[in-house]
Amino acid sequence: MKNTPSVEEHLEIYRKMLMVRHLEEGLGALHKEGRTRGPIHRCDGQEAVGIAATAVLEAGDKVTTTHRGHAVYIGKGMELRPVIAEIFGRETGACAGRAGHMLVADVEKGVIGGNAIVGAGIPAATGMALSMQVMGQPNVAMCVFGDGAAQTGICHEAMNMAALWKLPVVFVLEHNQFGLTVPSDVQSSVKDISIRAAGYGMPSEIVDGNDAVAVYRAVGAMAERARRGEGPGMIECKTYRLEGFSTSDMGGYQTKEEIAAWKARDPLKISRDALTADVDEAKLVEVEAKAKADVDEAFATALSDPMPQFAIDEACNPYSEAH
Amino acid sequence: MALMRYAEALNAALREEMAADPSVFLFGEDIGRYGGVFKVTKGLMEEFGESRVRDTPISEQAMTAMAVTAAMTGTRPVLEIMYADFIPLSLDALVNQASIYNYIWDGKVKMPFVLRTQGGGGSGAGAQHSKALDSMLAHIPGIKVVAPSTPADAKGMLKAAIRDDQPVVFLEHKLLYNVRGEVPDGDIIVPLGKAATLREGKDVSLFATSKMVVEAVKAADLLQADGISAEVIDLRSLRPLDVNAIVTSISKTHHAVVVNEGWRFCGYAAELSATIMDFAFDELDAPVARVTLPDMPIPYSEPLEIAMLPNADKIRAAALATLK
Fold first, then answer.
1. How confident is the model at residue A322, as a pLDDT?
2. Stretch A270-280: mean pLDDT, rounded?
3. CA B310, CA B280: separation in Å to the nearest integer?
4. Active-site positions of B?
5. Averaged pLDDT score across all residues of chain A
6. Which fold has domain A7-305?
7. Tens-digit pLDDT profile for residues B3-24
8. What is the pLDDT of residues B23-40, one digit of tens each?
């Protein structure tokens, strides 16, 4: 089937999803020990979206993501250590400890940023696509956004312009069912948000967001279309936020039954089951052990990295001479 | 030298910068086919095409956010927001996006975009189309805010703004577009952050930007008839502010009047007063006088609007009071 990942590609997606899961679980454990700072927004259960969607991108393509962007950071090629070091405010962090986990960027890798103003990533990716079109570049911009962001006014403005100008942008809707504590059906006039794409004259597709292969196929086809100059499209990935809004979330609004039903459809399990047809059990076990070891090592290194020193940013000086 | 209107000088700056650099492009409402409601972009779509000069929908929030990321990924967008009164719609992109990335991403991004807009009262445009929101913009770290008063500065500073690697908000004034002035020929750049002394004086310093500079010059003429020698400093740039020019002038006159067309409370004139306190308190012989809009909405009817706008008479009165 067209746009299906090769076995090697799927195995790489699986390896990255494993790393992100270990990253999230490691952060959860460190939070319990009081060793994290500020809220941490985990993406356990949603890894297939961020990893498989970005797997279709090329080096010169760009991606924006949400405040829950760890899978996108790793998916688009960032290493574990600078991501973890950034989460722990270290000098060696991807942004030297200035950004924190919600706003990580690696401009050279095309990760142009997490964004913690919900909805702001949508015009951000659209603006990058505008830049690509003006300069005649063969690249695409991708926006990974949530069902909460889909309700913002700026989403409408940006999607209208993207479709109007046939900008090379792919809107990947990570529908995890919640905006903070409020379920999507209490926030959204429609169940399937991607039906709104038709209102902009954009194609759309709904996929199982826990099935990495399904995400890869659908996003890959939409990215190819955008790269051909045929304009934007939307892929709605249905998934579920297993671990609450953030480490500060007291819970109580997600039912045990609902969580159990989605855990049974864990994206790691779905990918593993699919991979067993083509990959030896020994190889899978080896990949799994390596992913765990890599994350453990990155945590150990990042946590012993130095803290940054504060300095006034002269680029922000309100006076034209130093004062 | 050529005699040009302020709007024509801006148009020349845009044309020259677009011709010199293919990464410069324009977008905004009514700027393409129609040439802009103030005719600043007249003829540019014909010359540079519909990809580089784009008519947009009425979508200020997304447009401003798009300028931010387009600027971070290889282009130099010049966005026109038709009225400064619409700037509140752009604020998330300025406050939460544009202002933070250079610092929080450890200096790894440049953000060369210009947001052109025009504000100010006096044309009967009413409470939603007449404001100067300078202080709201100049409050934001990491963003330059400039407001030229002459056609020559309009051209030279817009060229400098387009070439600047930081975001620049470029404030024009609806009543300046038809003002004529001599504009030097050629590729003249006026650096951002440098004030200009328009009139030398020894008794009192008048500090202003944009159309208030025109009023300050008129006030200096009135004061001359009163036997008072007023110095007029066109600050030209609100941020970064040329504090050295302010201190130098006050060290000579020991009296200061700060003029701003925005609201008084927490306004730009308040910032200028505090800056003078910080840097030139010992040089002052009297408290700094502020001439501003009163803290209320701008009414429509001509006598109501004219009564509330700062003007030469009010600047003169403030100068006389500070010299008493």
1. 66
2. 98
3. 25
4. 60, 129
5. 96
6. Rossmann fold (3.40.50)
7. 999 999 999 999 999 999 999 9
8. 999 999 999 999 999 999
For A:11-40, CB contacts with B below 8 A are: none
Calpha distance B176→B149 (Å, rounded)? 7
The structure tokens 């060793």 sit at: A35
3-state secondary structure B160-226: HHHHCCCCEEEEEECCCCCCEEEECCCCCCCCCCCCEEEECCCCEEEEECCHHHHHHHHHHHHHHHC
Rounded to a whole number of angstroms, the distance from the CA of B137 to the nearest CA of chain A is 12
pLDDT value, residue A2: 65
User: Given CB atoms, is B53 within the 8 Å cutoff of chain A?
Assistant: no
And the tokens for B127?
Answer: 């409470």
pLDDT value, residue B37: 96
Q: How many helices (H) and strands (E) does chain B have?
A: 12, 14
Return the CATH number of B196-323, one of 3.40.50.11540, 3.40.50.920, 3.40.50.2000, 3.90.800.10.
3.40.50.920
Q: First-to-last CA distance in chain A?
A: 64
CB B291 within 8 A of CB B258: yes
* Per-residue pLDDT at A323: 63
- Above pLDDT 90, what percent of chain B? 100
Is residue A1 over pLDDT 60? no
One-letter amino acid at B321 equals A
Q: What is the CATH number of domain B2-183?
A: 3.40.50.970
Predicted confidence (pLDDT) per residue in A278-290, tens digit:
999 999 999 999 9
Instruction: Report CA torsion sign: A114, A137, B10, A315.
Output: positive
Q: Beta strand B76-81 with B24-28: parallel, antiparallel or unpaired?
A: parallel
CA dist A267 → A122, A279, A281, B216 (Å): 25, 17, 18, 68
Nearest residue, CB atoms, B62 vs list A112, A123, A321: A123
CA–CA dist A159, A126 (Å, integer): 8
0.90 surpassed by pTM: yes
Closest Cα partner for B84 from B35, B38, B40, B120? Answer: B120
Portion 142-201 of B in contact with A at CB < 8 A: 142, 166, 192-194
Write down the domain spans for chain B: 2-183, 196-323
Of B102, B239, B243, nearest to A321 by CB-CB distance is B243
ipTM attached to this prediction: 0.96
Token output for B101: 């990335």
Give the model confidence (pLDDT) of B246-259 as tens digits.
Answer: 999 999 999 999 99
CB within 8 Å of chain B, chain A residues 76-135: 95-96, 98-99, 103, 105, 107-108, 112-113, 115, 117, 120, 122-128, 130-135
Query: Does the beta-carbon distance from A124 to B141 stay under 8 Å?
Result: no
Closest-CA distance of chain A to residue B161, Å: 15
Tell me which of A64, A73, A109, A134 to substitute to probe the interface with B (most B C-beta atoms closer than 10 Å).
Answer: A134
**Does the CB of B92 have a partner CB in chain A at under 8 Å?**
yes
Show which of residues 195-234 on chain B sit within 8 Å of chain A, judged by CB atoms. Answer: none
A167 touches chain B (CB under 8 A): no
The model's confidence at residue A3, banded by pLDDT at 50, 70 and 90, is confident
Pick the closest to residue A70 from A93, A29, A103 (CA basis).
A103
The separation between CA A140 and the C-alpha centre of its own chain, rounded to angstroms, equals 16
| Domain regions of chain A by residue span | 7-305
Residues of chain B positioned with their CB less than 8 A from the CB of A319 = 240-243
Of A103, A157, A323, which is closest to B62 when you measure between CB atoms? A157
